[in-house]
Predict the 3D structure of the following.
Amino acid sequence: MILIRSGMPAGTIGFEAIGELTADDYRDVIAPALERALPDQPLRMLVLLDDRFEKLTPGASVQDIKLWLEHRGDWVKIAVVTDHEWIGRAVEEFSGVVADRLRRFATSELDAAVSWVAAD
């Protein structure tokens, strides 16, 4: 399940995953929220995958890639907040491709992640 985070700074959007993240979460929550943000502003997104997050289904992985490709020119910053090592490694490997637009933060650094994603 994915939830939209409340209390995010203006011009940013935040999500938090609980339990299993599925393709339906992308279709029903993430994609519509991002579409509402476009075309008014570039995308600044925070994703929290803390200890409540359990797994990403194969369908969700496909939807994640599709979403990234569909909006590749719209992303300004993406902060991934997690202590899950496998996600951290994936973010760190992919961040080399997208330069300073993608960054991983530990869950203890949530406030810093929110500040980073909102900063110009």
Q: What stands out?
A: Residues 2-118 form a domain with the Transcription Regulator spoIIAA fold (CATH 3.30.750.24).
